[in-house]
Amino acid sequence: MENVFWILSKIDSRNLVDIVLVAAIIYGALLMVRGTQAVQLLRGVILLALVVSLVGSIARLTAFNWLLKSAGQALLVVVAIALQPELRRALDRLGRAGLPWLTGREGDIERVIREIASGCRRLSERRHGALIVVERETGLQDHANTGVRIESLVVADLLQTIFYPNTALHDGAVIVRGDRILAAACVLPLAETSPLALQHLGTRHRAAVGITEQTDAIAIVVSEESGIISLARNGQIVRHLDERRLAMLLQTYLGRGPRRGRRSAERMDRADEAAGGSE
Length: 279
Prior knowledge:
With 279 residues, the chain is an alpha+beta fold. It is 57% helix and 14% strand. The protein is built from twelve helices and seven strands.
């Protein structure tokens, strides 16, 4: 205990500010990459660096320590290149997080959920295929750039218009950010899941599963053949939803649902998995 007080007594205000600034920068960097695929890679790099530095300092390996210091800058460049997509998305999210009143990120989520659920019901009744992706923590700007920028409030009538068959924007995904439709006719990655598990599903469903495998987004699909409404999350898909159940799942997964709704959503997930997701 005396050693602790002795160390604290040696820390002046300048050193304290220095420590706080370094801690704030590290914390901010971790927040930037939270929810992206860069987290696991960063953890591995940090763990490897700590182990190697510890071994070098304890064993007093002079040449080894010199090699580490010489290779440090090169390692930073390699990490930056490897994490280029994640860093770009993280910086994009940082810029939007600093201006929530301009981006609509904190918009009326309840209204958005109602409009999406209502729009999907109408599309289902008319057998108009649709794919709607709701952005969460992981930025989807790269995918939005493949489509046509819309920047309009989420409205059920607009969703119906976009996905009306044979129109210019119907063949692709709509990306929703906050309370606005960011872009339409967007191209998404297809699922990496075994084709056998998705052999009865079309391209829209594969794209919905694919984007949720790579990000934390929520994807809603309306089947053009059967009119069945499905929701994909974390690479898993829940099918045979109506307007009420779709709204409840969206409220739960977007962080606004009650515990009872979360438990009901989990039961629906298990029931759909047991049914095999078939039509």
